[in-house]
Design goal:
The complex is a heterodimer of chains A (about 400) and B (about 80).
Chain A (H helix, E strand, L loop, with lengths): L1 H8 L1 E7 L3 H10 L5 E6 L2 E7 H11 L8 E5 L1 H7 L4 H17 L5 E5 L6 H10 L13 H11 L3 E9 L2 E8 L13 E5 L3 E10 L1 E2 L6 E2 L4 E4 L1 E4 L3 E4 L3 E17 L1 E19 L2 E6 L9 E12 L3 E21 L2 H16 L7 E11 L3 E13 L1 E5 L4
Parallel strand pairs in A: 5-7
Antiparallel strand pairs in A: 1-3, 1-4, 2-3, 6-7, 8-12, 8-22, 9-11, 9-15, 10-12, 13-14, 15-21, 16-17, 16-19, 18-19, 20-21
Chain B lengths: L20 E5 L3 E5 L1 E7 L3 E6 L3 E15 L2 E14 L1
Antiparallel strand pairs in B: 1-2, 2-6, 3-4, 4-5, 5-6
Classes of the chains: A alpha+beta (about 400), B mainly beta (about 80).
């Protein structure tokens, strides 16, 4: 600490020959001139005087010097004197210091932890809507308000914590579990049929069954009623709950034309590079040979690290435009059939997810223009759907 | 009526030589007050002038620091302290 203070105050280091060392020290002590840093080496004695004490020393010595006396200015003043011609150096140092101080008021990085089903991008997009993004002004962020807003904005979020640690916004989330789905157990409802079919089994946990095993029902028919009529209490409304399985036949039709258009890439690419600092993007260069109208855009972003470890709020972005054109294509029969099965699988997947499939009857009809895939699926599935009773 | 103020003349300030005192701490630090000058200086022997006479300090690795008006601090391994008239 004392060394630093002396450096800032600046001092003179006076070196004399060792033979005259005693006389120099005697002079200092007898005139009460404070000195420090006394050193003796290689036949020389040196000591330091602060600037004000050096003035007194020089005045008292009346420009007479001891044997081999040298005087050297040290400290901050010497440094300034040495570099006084290099204004750019000083200006650069001041600017760098100012930039470091100013940049500490902005968010450099956002980290998200605790996500499982929700993606980090979803969280980051929602944060950006609430003002938390790279380059955000830290003093303006009200973390409590943002946390409350995030719970309302992001579906599936149970808890969120936003901590500002220096220039890093650390976000920790907890997702809502599927078991915690809110069920209104008080609202009265009926169970109705979602498909035509023959009732296989009934499992009623609330309400009154309106059908019986073996009965044929149509789509929309009442299966379990939420209206209970009793002689003692009159009628009352309850929530109908249960499972009603039925044998149903589901029908699916898929048409695939032979003539189709497909996207074919021409092989021409157009790249545009840019730098993003915080959230400001600066385009570097790019050619205008290809119009981006018939192009697919591929964007890559790479973050810049200092010494490979320190994250900077600087990103190198590269946007690649791949030109394509739409071409007519004629599908072969096998291609059309493969496509038909793919589409059939997509449309029937949800219906048949929990179904017990008994039989599948597939019929393919080929025409001049295309192919039609017709499938009938016999299965047993739960056809009960809860419909709320309007009490208004 | 004018009141004439008499300017008070301050006597010249004479340097006050403090009383000579010696404080030694654990044979490695010594403070001497009332020092008037240096008679000899080396890392093995330092001789200082005081009002009462000379004080010689011998030892190893002796260094000297200014410790205030007419005060000097010696640091190092002190072997002997001798008073000379």
């Amino acid at each position: 600490m004392e060394t630093m203070l002396n450096f800032i105050r600046s001092y003179y280091r006076i070196t004399v020959s060792e033979t005259d060392g005693q006389r120099a020290l005697d002079f200092l002590v007898s005139h009460d001139i404070p000195f420090h840093g006394l050193e003796s080496a290689e036949g020389k004695l040196s000591f330091c005087l602060l600037l004000s004490d050096f003035k007194a020393y020089r005045r008292l010595r009346a420009e007479k010097r001891f044997l081999d006396e040298t005087r050297e200015l040290c400290g901050l003043r010497a440094l300034i004197r040495r570099y006084r011609g290099r204004i750019g150096l000083a200006a650069g140092a001041v600017m760098a210091l100012a930039l470091i101080l100013i940049s500490s008021f902005f968010v450099w990085d956002i980290t998200v932890t605790g996500t499982d089903k929700l993606s980090s991008d979803e969280i980051l997009d929602a944060l950006e809507k609430n003002g938390v993004k790279l380059g955000a002004y830290i003093p303006s962020l009200d973390t409590e308000k943002i946390e409350q807003a995030m719970i309302l904005d992001v579906d599936g979020l149970s808890w969120i914590s936003l901590n500002l640690r220096g220039t890093v916004a650390a976000v920790e989330v907890r997702e809502r579990s599927d078991d915690a789905e809110k069920i209104d157990t008080q609202a009265p409802s009926n169970l109705v049929a979602t498909f035509d079919g023959q009732i296989e089994s009934l499992e009623v946990m609330g309400g009154v069954a309106a059908v019986s095993r073996g009965q044929i029902v149509k789509k929309g028919d009442l299966l379990v009623s939420g209206v209970i009529d009793s002689n003692a209490l009159g009628y009352r409304l309850v929530r109908a709950r249960g499972e009603v399985t039925a044998r149903v036949t589901l029908t699916y039709n898929v048409e695939i034309p032979y003539q189709t258009t497909e996207k074919v890439y021409t092989g021409n690419f157009y790249k545009q590079k840019s730098i993003k600092i915080f959230s400001k993007t600066l385009n570097l260069f790019g050619k205008d040979s290809i119009s981006p109208e018939n192009c697919d855009t591929i964007e890559t972003e790479r973050r810049v690290y200092l010494f490979g470890k320190i994250k900077l709020p600087i990103f190198l972005q590269e946007t690649t435009y791949a030109e394509y054109e739409m071409k007519e294509k004629t599908l072969t029969e096998s291609e059309a059939l493969e496509l038909a099965y793919e589409q059939l699988h997509k449309i029937s997947e949800e219906d048949l997810e929990d179904a017990e499939i008994l039989a599948r009857h597939t019929h393919i009809s080929e025409g001049e223009d295309g192919l039609v895939l017709h499938e009938e699926v016999e299965c047993i599935l739960n056809i009960a759907q809860e419909v709320k009773i309007d009490t208004d | 009526m004018k009141i004439k103020k008499i300017k008070q003349v301050q006597p010249p300030k004479a340097p006050v030589i403090p009383r000579e005192t010696i404080e030694i701490a654990e044979r490695c630090e010594m403070l001497v007050t009332g020092v008037l000058g240096i008679d000899e200086y080396s890392q093995q022997s330092i001789r200082v002038k005081t009002k009462q006479g000379l004080i010689q300090v011998t030892g190893r690795g002796l260094i000297m620091c200014w410790a205030g008006e007419k005060k000097l601090m010696f640091r190092g391994a002190i072997d002997t302290v001798r008073f000379e008239a």
